[in-house]
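re: that chain from earlier
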Amino acid sequence: MAEQGTSTANAPAKRATRPPAEIEAELVATRERLVGTIAEIEEYVSPKNVAGRGKRKLQALYTDDANNVRWDRVAMTAGAVVASLIALRVTSKTLRWAFAADERHQAQVVYLPVPRAQVGQLTAGLGA
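^ sequence. v structure.
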């Protein structure tokens, strides 16, 4: 008797059969929903709309709700730009000077083959 209870428990549940017209209608509705979603994504990532969002964010950064310019933020940005230009100028001058110094102050070094036995004698006089 216990076997009969387990055999009914292992039996697959019966599914309700749906008519093909209902399945087709569901597929059509899903397809239309996906097409609408893809159209929304295409519109969202279009270059024109991306640029518009960036422009609005930038305007919001430098203006308040009443469309008045926030001069403190403009001044901070201008200061950062000027500081960056000065740092770039100083760095480039320093680098140019450093690279030019190598060319101007090159020592004329001549390497001569010396036997190992004489290397100690030669460097002793240099304080090395």
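The helical segments are 2-10, 20-44, 47-62, 71-104, 116-124.
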